[in-house]
Design a protein that fits this description.
Elements (H helix, E strand, L loop, with lengths): L5 E4 L7 H9 L5 E3 L7 H4 L6 H4 L2 E5 L7 E2 L6 E2 L4 E2 L4 E2 L4 H5 L5 E4 L2 H14 L5 E3 L6 H8 L1 H12 L3 E6 L16 E7 L2 H6 L1 E2 L4 H13 L4 E8 L5 H15 L2 H6 L1 E6 L1 E3 H10 L12 E5 L2 E4 L1 H18 L4 E5 L1
Parallel strand pairs: 1-2, 1-3, 3-8, 5-9, 9-10, 10-11, 11-13, 13-14, 14-18
Antiparallel strand pairs: 4-5, 6-8, 7-12, 15-17, 16-17
This protein binds iron/sulfur cluster.
Length: 332
């Protein structure tokens, strides 16, 4: 991947096969030693305007905390997995709330340890569980660098119980199509109107490619889902989102429409994102809508109740009309 300019690494990564492979793959870049991927002091001191430049650093370390968090949505547990952060720059990215301007891509090379724990937890559970392994990053993007999914999906199919799942905004699924997955990996694609992708989801795949990826994964036998998320209620939202739902109805295969789940999530925005975006992307659309948003605690803004009450039935009714066989699992 020609995108990165520098690699920051913990020396211990060279004890792992993946660490050695990355060192070879990126041997033409400067490698800068760090003590801990969580505390790179020179990064925290950088101005917000450096955010896009910092996104071009690749950080390589080992994951030290492995605590699973219970989840009540599409999965039962959120699993800290093989990466955090991302190279893309969606202006609303939830990871910025956690990592602030250090939301660059971090790869964790101790994948055997994470996989072993995942399989052990899945087989010990009384009932089959679903494990969300992509809540901290975008694993399809990560896979372009590490090829981890080619290893994780068959390994879970062989030894795991229940399901693993991850959402993505990237369409590069070709390496996944022929894997022996046994239906145990649920692939979920996040979509937005193309205009929003171009202006707000910077560095992600175009909508038509995302739809094609869903069709391909469905044809390859994977359970699939669509996230219409995050729904952004800027001027013209009604037309944009109804057209998006039309596009899904017209371009997804019959097989995909019959078997897929749909999640709909309205955007939340935060003080931290607003501060970074203002300095890093002064020309970008302003996602903070003073008139239609209110504080939801801990520096977060949500759309006001009146606007939500207007938008939600319009969009969910239209989903039920145009995608009647899909399973609309939740709206939040
Ligand atoms: S693709 Fe996902 S993880 Fe990456 S910047 Fe966008 S929202 Fe964040």
């Amino acid at each position: 991947m020609k995108f990165f300019t520098d690699v920051y690494y913990e020396p211990g990564i060279l004890d792992y096969p993946l660490g050695k492979k990355l060192k070879e793959d990126f041997s033409d870049l400067p490698w800068i030693e760090i003590d801990n991927h969580n505390r790179i002091e020179e990064m925290t001191k950088r101005p917000n305007s450096d955010f896009p430049k910092m996104k071009r650093y690749l950080i390589v370390g080992t994951r030290k905390t492995h605590r699973y968090t219970e989840n009540q949505k599409i999965s039962d547990y959120l699993v800290p997995f093989t990466s955090s952060g991302c190279t893309a720059m969606c202006l609303y990215c939830y990871l910025v709330c956690n990592y602030n301007k250090c939301a660059y891509l971090r790869l964790f090379v101790n994948r055997e340890q994470m996989m072993e724990r995942l399989i052990r937890t899945s087989t010990k559970s009384a009932e089959p569980q679903t494990f969300e392994i992509g809540s901290n990053s975008d694993l399809v993007l990560e896979n372009q660098i590490t090829e981890n999914l080619q290893w994780v999906i068959p390994a879970f199919a062989r030894e795991g119980r229940g399901h693993i799942t991850f959402p993505t905004k990237f369409a590069s699924v070709r390496p996944l199509l022929d894997l022996p997955h046994q239906g145990k990996t649920i692939f979920r694609m996040s979509v937005n109107p193309q205009e929003i992708i171009e202006t707000i989801e910077l560095g992600t795949s175009p909508l038509v490619q995302r739809i094609q990826a869903v069709n391909d994964m469905c044809e390859a036998g994977y359970p699939i889902g669509i996230l219409i998320a995050p729904i952004i209620l800027t001027t013209g939202w009604k037309k944009q989102y109804l057209e998006l739902i039309d596009q899904l109805a017209d371009q997804l295969t019959e097989k995909a429409k019959k078997s897929m789940t749909i999640e709909m999530i309205f955007m939340t925005y935060s003080y931290v994102q607003n501060a970074i975006n203002k300095e890093a992307f002064p020309e970008a659309p302003d996602l903070y809508d003073k008139q239609n948003m209110s504080g939801g605690g801990r520096g977060k803004y949500r759309y006001k109740k009146d606007l939500r009450l207007e938008a939600e039935p319009i969009l969910t009714d239209y989903v039920r009309i145009r995608l009647p066989e899909a399973d609309l699992v939740y709206v939040c």
